[in-house]
Structures are given as C-alpha cells and as structure tokens.
Amino acid sequence: MEKISVTIITKDEEQLIEDCLKSLCWADEIIVVDAGSKDRTLEIVKDYSGKAFFNEWHGFAAQKEYALSLVNNDWVLSIDADERVSNKLKEEIERNDFSQFDGYFIPRENYFIGKHITSCGWGSDRQLRLFRKSKTKLTNRLVHEGFEVAGRIGNLKNPVIHFTYNSIEKSISKINNYSTLEAEEKYKSQIKITGATILSHGISSFLRSFVSLRGYKDGVHGLMISIIDSMTTFLTYMKMWELQNRNKNFK
Predict the structure, then answer these.
(1) Same domain, 214 and 130
(2) What total of structural domains would you count in the chain?
(3) What's the Cα-to-Cα distance from 133 to each of 21, 31, 137, 230, rounded to whole Å?
C-alpha cells in the first residue's frame, strides 16, 4: 500500500484527541498543527507523534493548508480531533488500490450526545478526506472549508466516526463561533438583511431539518439538532444584519 500521512488541527482538545490518535496508530506519519492549546492536548499528542507544530490561528482552511505543507508522503488523510477512523475503514485503506483515483470521499457516521444520527441530512454525509497532496488544494472559506482534487475521485465504503456534539453547552459555544464565521462569509455577498430575512431563514432551517430531512425520526435528538440548525441560521443572519448596520453607521 501507499504510505499515508495524517493531518490533524487542534486547540484545547484534551478530551477528544487521544481516542482520535489511537485510531491512527497504523499511519506512517501523523502531523498535528496546534493553535496554542492551554490544556493537555500537546502532552497527549507527544505519546503518539513526534510531529506537533504550532501555527497561529488564521482560520480552519489556513491551519489545514499549513498542516498539508508539512507532510512527507503524497497520500494524505485529513482527520479532525472529534473524529475516529473505524477499524473497517483502516482495513479498507490498507487493501486499497491507489492507482485508480487521486482522492476519495469517505462516509461519516455522526453522533450527537451519544446517539448515532441518520436523519437531518447526517446519514448521507460524505467528506473528501483521503487524497494526493500533489493534486489537492484547500477551498478558501472561513467555515465549512474543504479539499479540491484535480483528478479522479472515488468512494470508500467504511466510515469515519464523528462525535459532533457531546453536550448542549459545547454545542452552544460551537454554533456561536460557526455563525460568526458564516456571517462574515455570507456578508461579502452584500445581501440586504431585514427582520423578515432573519425570521424566514431561521424558520425554514428548522422545517428543513426536522420535516424535510426527517429529524423527527431521531426523536428528541433529532428535535434538538433541528433547533440547533435553526439557532445557527438565526444567529448567522442576525450577525449579518449587525455587520450591515455597523458598516452603514461608519459611512
């Protein structure tokens, strides 16, 4: 098989990073790029990899691009601290014929507060995470960044396990951060934001997640995810409105 380098970006991930690293012990190289953790993240990383680097935070895409620049092998697997490579995925990668494609989509098995979620669009989640470094670049986005491969892309069958939210408290903190980045990204489009815009998008987001994408099938978990999606949308458009009016006041 081809030699595989793994990249992970971190900041204060002591509760998640060890299980992530344990699932990657088979890799030929593990590159960790840390943005200045104040907890035990780097202490834990040192038990699994001698290749931990500091890089000042300039956004998700910038961190992952820097990590990509440090790898020594052409084939790279990009993993987040809240993700795990399943044993079946590891075996599939080890058996894989890498001559046919330049990148691979990998399914994600998403968990919310301990429950495997198949509704809300989470059941069809596939991410481009395994690729040739020589054929790949990052998309230049503040949030929901991704990889673009100039070549043929295949699909792997077995999943990455994703523990997206382990508590309501952490989910609120995360959506506050993500909605700020999303607002800054969308604000560039110069869409005029009104009260009706905020209300309609927030309500539509809940209905899409809970009704159209069948969030109700996952019970209370699906309801909470749909509410979180709606809250993220409400906050995004409220922050866009704030940016719009703040800049208007400075004109």
Answers:
(1) no
(2) 2
(3) 21, 14, 8, 36
Is 210 in contact with 204 (CB distance < 8 Å)? no
pLDDT digits (tens, 9 = 90+) for 75-115: 999 999 999 999 999 999 999 999 999 999 999 999 999 99
Domain termination site, one of 124, 144, 164: 164
Instruction: For residues 218 and 191, give the distance between their C-alpha atoms in angstroms, rounded to a whole number.
Output: 34
The domain in which residue 121 lies consists of: 4-164
Write down the pLDDT at residue 251: 45
Bridge partners for 78 per DSSP? 7
Rounded-to-integer distance, Cα 13 and Cα 38, Å: 9
More confident residue, 216 or 59: 216
Highest mean pLDDT among 116-125, 138-147, 173-182: 116-125
Q: For 171-185, what is each residue's pLDDT tens digit?
A: 898 899 999 989 988
Q: What is the pTM of this model?
A: 0.90
Q: Would you list the DSSP string of the chain?
A: ---EEEEEEESS-TTTHHHHHHTTTTSSEEEEEES--SSSHHHHHTTT-S-EEE-----HHHHHHHHHHH-SSSEEEE--TTEEE-HHHHHHHHH--TTS-SEEEEEEEEEETTEE--TTTGGG-EEEEEEEGGGEEE---SSS--EEESS-EEE-SSPEEEEEES-HHHHHHHHHHHHHHHHHHHHTT-PPP-HHHHHHHHHHHHHIIIIIT-GGGGHHHHHHHHHHHHHHHHHHHHHHHHHHHHHHHH-
